[in-house]
Amino acid sequence: MAVQFEQEPQYDVSSLSQAEDGRAKAQPEDWKPSGHEILIIITLAIVSLLVALDASIIVTSLGAMANELQADTTAAFWIGTSYLLVNAVTMPVIAALSEIFGRPICLEFALAAFTLGTVLCATSHSVAVMLLGRCVQGVGGGGVHVLSGVILTDIVPLRFRPKWFGVVLGAWALGTCVGPLIGGAIVQNTTWRWVFYLMFPICAYGLVAVPLLLTLAPRAESFRDKLLRVDWFGSFLFMGSATSFLVAICWGGTQKPWESAAAIAPLVLGLLGLAATLVWEARFAREPIFKRELFNNVSSTITYVCGGAQGFLMWGCFYYFPFYFMSVMQTTPLTAGVNLLPAVLITVPGSIITGRLVTRYNNYRIFVWVGWAVAVLFSILSVVWRFIDVTTAVWAISFVFFGLGQGMVLNAQQFAVQAMCPAGDEGHAASMYLFLRQFGAAVGVGVGGSTFQNVMALKLGWEGLPIEIAAQAEGYIAELHQLPDDSPVKAKIIDAYRFGFAGVFQVYLGVAAVALLLSLLFVKHYSLDRDLGTEHVLKESKTSKMLVGEGGASSRALSGSSTAPPSRSSSNTEMSNSSMHAMAEAQPLDMTKYGWNPVAASDPEPIYPQCGSHPAVSLVYTEYTPYAPTSGYMTVDNAYNPSRYPAYSAASGSSMPDAGSYDASHQYAQPGGYMSQRY
User: Which of 297, 336, 334 has the alpha carbon at shortest distance from 419?
Assistant: First the structure.
């Protein structure tokens, strides 16, 4: 009779089949965060609110900044866009550095950079200083945004991550949605500098709370070893190439139609550089910032693509709808911000509720599909605005659909890629998804600007009006408001604005439709039931003990959840002898499945599929001593641990297969001996 070897669940990264998907049942909610972990989640939510607010508040306050700083249309465009561009470029590099140097120090650096950039912006009296401040803010904001998602992978099991990350995601969505409202209120009632002043209290909280609460300890190694692990060449090659590409995309949107060809050179250089980055990362980098394993199947690759599409659509809408209200509907900046409230009131609770439902039913696909279907419906409605009278009821209902669709996609897709990645790579998957979403946002704003100006210029030319108005569309709004309402020229210019926005919304409709089609065809189900797999272990601190008491650092032990293997980026993970003994004791020698099938000697025609014909063999377990190397390291070459094989002997009248024809070392293994990486 054959004995069976069951692979350990925490190392099983395969997806459920369609049949298994239908039989999957939701697990009871047996994991709860400790008090310390709740404080960390709240802190991440607060700093995520900060960076999202900074990105969106500029939309309705940009005109006032440009007027006081005497910035032309191009400079004003870069004041808003430079933040998103630097955000996207630095996110994967900061996430990769946090794997080596630790999450707390990298998040503290990001907050310090954001604070410095905010000081520069708040005190600037020239366009140059403002642009410098926005770029420094972008470095910090990118770090805060990506690390907020990565840190959740260190403390919350995947099955329950959508539920609890909904708090962080809700705060980020709230900041994104209310930013235009707050910006409009500020510029209408006081100086635009309060846009940056109000961020200082949140910055101060983050700078103090992160070192006190975020006690995630990375792998212990020397500073020299950490520096040697950094992929310096790949990081600088990527940042330079991505910057060139995004600048070309955004620059094309600031030029007159006949001058946009000047962006072709940096665009080509950026694309070539990004291609070179991928080759370097795949073949030469010791610890790549972009892991090829994350794109291990079509389903995961398409989900990342849809993540970029979601950033493209969401940020584009948040940038251009307030612009639409102030130009076409002639509202004030404050009213334009207020008009986005329906989107706020649906997006935030929608993302939180979606996270809870994903956790409850262990299924993200239905929310991805429905979310993109609703996004397509919203995009159709926004295109129809070109042909109807846009009343309050029309835009309010449209924004309800926008918030519902974005709220679903915002949460569900992010954890889909974490379920699809190899075990231990959840942090890398989270950072990759957030980077691509932010990269899509920067591209979306740039493409939207280019589309708007070119389409509007085309309409102005048809009407016999100066096409230069399109290149100065934002700055021209103040002059447009001063024209008499019954002026035929004003009506034609407003219609040109409307025509330009219709072109932008048609692009967004195409992106949403493609994302819906791809998600329906390729996004498959992967189970969210996976244990934590991280090198970064949360430890108690004096502050956590004071706030939540003893033993509040981690709920991992309380939940019965074991830690999965460290990330594959680890080449020399140190393990103590006591840890090795504990691992061995937890996994006894029983219920083992071997690569060949022994049968009773009385069977008429013994068949040995992998050994050939041999006399019957009996298997004898013997006690063993767990491997305890003096170096403190254990070497496993992506296979079975030889030190933990059970011993075998031939019974009376039988013999083992000939060693020359059968390699038992590849067939016999004890369950505790399997590990999926090199330590």
Answer: 297
3-state secondary structure of 174: helix
Strand, helix or coil for residue 423? coil
On whether the CB atoms of residues 195 and 61 are closer than 8 A, the answer is yes
CA distance 243 to 321: 26
The tens digit of pLDDT for each residue in 586-605 reads 343 333 333 333 334 444 44
C-alpha separations of 433 from 277, 364, 415 in Å: 18, 15, 9
User: Contact at 8 Å (CB) between 571 and 678?
Assistant: yes
> Which residues lie across from 217 on neighbouring strands?
537
The angle, 0 to 180 degrees and rounded to 10, between the axes of the packed helices 488-522 and 298-327 is 170
Phi/psi class of residue 662: alpha, beta or left (left: φ > 0; alpha: ψ in -120 to 50)?
beta
Which H or E run contains 216?
A: strand 216-217
- Band of pLDDT at residue 58, cut at 50, 70 and 90: confident
CA nearest to 497, candidates 483, 512, 514, 511: 483
Dist. CA 141–CA 144, nearest whole Å: 5
State how far the alpha carbon of 326 is from the alpha carbons of 140, 258, 265, 599, 663, in Å: 30, 27, 35, 82, 76
Q: What is the pLDDT of residue 305?
A: 93
The encoded tokens of residue 307 equal 């993540």
Tell me how far apart the alpha carbons of residues 175 and 53 are, in angstroms, rounded to a whole number.
4
Q: Is 96 helix (H, G, I), strand (E, B) or coil?
A: helix
The arithmetic mean of pLDDT across residues 410-425, rounded, is 83
pLDDT at 423: 78
Nearest to 108 by CA among 47, 171, 170: 47
